[in-house]
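RECORD TYPE: inverse folding
INPUT: structure tokens
STRUCTURE:
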């Protein structure tokens, strides 16, 4: 195993690129620098992935651990398991896609444009840090600091209600972070202490009994439920995604919100296994409500950006359902769902943004017949929508199928209820496509251009990833499965044994 600091390098490259953009001030080549930086980050992420050994028994690979604040037991500690690596690589893929999609977002260019792209690179650096941190305190630092670039990306560059949306996002996130901070301090006080008292490896399986353990679990879970987002703490998401630029919405919903479900696995399950099992029935109910409620709100929304945001509330319900089913199939499906959701939601947000740029409205009732005007845009939107509703052959189908199958092993009634979300997904995607793209050709849109070459380069990689993960999910599952198995071993959960009915009517 190479001793090269892959993860530190991966986090520093976009941060250095952001600093260069700030120093460039109004130089016109800023977005080229940002795009080049994101491609370099992607190349390093690919190099790190090649160093990863799925067959290794180590919990974390590419590990770096250095004393930071030894008096408090805080370390600068980074490392990845298969789950963290998959999410980091997903983010590294989506950032250059988003930068290319945002190429003309700031028409006046200059210093304002450079700051816009700089904030995106800062956010990428924080994404690497939050998924790679193996010290709870360091994770908390990244968890909070990443709010800053998102706040400015929404509040400075979003729509007419951007400031209110950015403030609502910040307040919800800060409230969750403060609750988690209290739980984190209490956990440290009950932990082994010493110079490495905040390391995940030192706290894993501590499993504090009684009320104290449940309260600490609740502190972490509430913060992650807000970030995910789950019902009833989801209300910041439609406002933030609806007012954000499409590229910002992708990074927010497609990447950043995964910190919530990632945290549920890394911290809730691994640090509080007993409390996790005790709280599972309540969380299963909340996940089912999120699945159905998010889908119903999506059906009723006329704002396309908010509609896509509501679909994510439903999808995150599936992810949480698979996590707390506490089965290997459900857990693997949930992690794969995080990745597939990132790509499918990215495509929906970005293509909807391209449509809105041409049509001048976020509301679907301002459209109709656009497949006759922009057939390539319509076709790519349809493929992306079919991925979101989990059509067989596209990546999301495998994820959703694994989640429902894993849930059925332990909670068959919950699995059956969750199938309602699959039906509702077909309703909101197909109705949206019908209202926007089918019908007679609008006479006043005859001169509207279809997707440009740049826009095709934005969409093409995402569609390729739908197909690759749809037909060859083993590529991702081989990396993900060991981390899921490790988590279940900590929780003490094993897959239910199948009941086989014998010819005499007894079960074996």
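DESIGNED SEQUENCE:
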């Amino acid at each position: 195993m190479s001793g090269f600091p892959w993860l530190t390098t991966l986090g520093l490259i976009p941060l250095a690129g952001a600093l260069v953009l700030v120093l460039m001030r109004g130089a016109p080549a800023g977005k080229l620098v940002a795009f080049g930086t994101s491609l370099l980050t992607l190349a390093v992420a690919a190099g790190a992935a090649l160093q990863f050994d799925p067959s290794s028994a180590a919990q974390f690979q590419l590990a770096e651990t250095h004393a930071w604040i030894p008096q408090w037991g805080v370390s600068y500690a980074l490392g990845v398991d298969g789950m963290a690596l998959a999410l980091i690589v997903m983010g590294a893929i989506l950032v250059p896609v988003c930068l290319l999609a945002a190429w003309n977002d700031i028409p006046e260019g200059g210093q304002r444009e450079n700051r816009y792209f700089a904030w995106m690179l800062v956010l990428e650096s924080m994404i690497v840090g939050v998924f790679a941190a193996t010290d709870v305190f360091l994770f908390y630092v990244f968890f909070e600091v990443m709010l800053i670039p998102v706040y400015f990306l929404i509040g400075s560059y979003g729509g007419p209600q951007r400031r209110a949306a950015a403030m609502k996002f910040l307040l919800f996130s800060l409230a969750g972070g403060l609750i988690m901070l209290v739980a984190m301090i209490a956990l440290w006080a009950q932990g082994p202490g010493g110079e490495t008292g905040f390391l995940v490896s030192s706290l894993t399986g501590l499993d504090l009994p009684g009320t104290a353990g449940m309260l600490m679990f609740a502190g972490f879970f509430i913060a992650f439920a807000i970030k995910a987002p789950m019902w009833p703490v989801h209300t910041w998401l439609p406002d933030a995604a609806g007012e954000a630029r499409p590229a910002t919405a992708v990074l927010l919903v497609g990447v950043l919100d995964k910190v919530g479900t990632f945290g549920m696995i890394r911290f809730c399950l691994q640090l509080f296994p007993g409390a996790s099992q005790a709280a599972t029935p309540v969380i299963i109910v909340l996940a089912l409500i999120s699945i159905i409620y998010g889908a119903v709100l999506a059906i009723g929304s006329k704002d396309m950006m908010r509609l896509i945001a509501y679909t994510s509330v439903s999808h995150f319900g599936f992810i949480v359902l698979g996590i707390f089913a506490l089965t290997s199939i459900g857990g693997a499906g949930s992690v794969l769902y995080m990745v597939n959701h990132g790509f499918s939601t990215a495509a929906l947000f970005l293509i909807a943004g391209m449509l809105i740029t041409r049509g001048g409205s976020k509301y679907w009732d301002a459209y109709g017949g656009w497949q006759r005007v922009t057939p390539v845009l319509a076709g790519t939107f349809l493929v992306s929508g079919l991925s979101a509703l989990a059509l067989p052959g596209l990546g999301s189908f495998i994820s959703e199928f694994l989640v429902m199958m894993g849930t059925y092993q332990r909670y068959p009634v919950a699995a059956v209820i969750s199938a309602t979300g699959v039906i509702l997904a077909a309703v909101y995607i197909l109705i949206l496509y019908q209202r926007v793209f089918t019908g007679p050709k609008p006479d006043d849109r005859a001169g509207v251009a279809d997707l440009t070459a740049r826009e095709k380069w934005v969409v093409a990689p995402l569609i390729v990833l739908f197909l690759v993960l749809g037909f060859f999910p083993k590529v991702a599952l081989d990396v993900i499965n060991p981390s899921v198995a490790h988590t279940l071993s900590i929780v003490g959960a094993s897959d239910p044994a199948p009941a086989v009915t014998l010819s005499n009517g007894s079960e074996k």
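NOTES: The longest strand covers residues 61-69.
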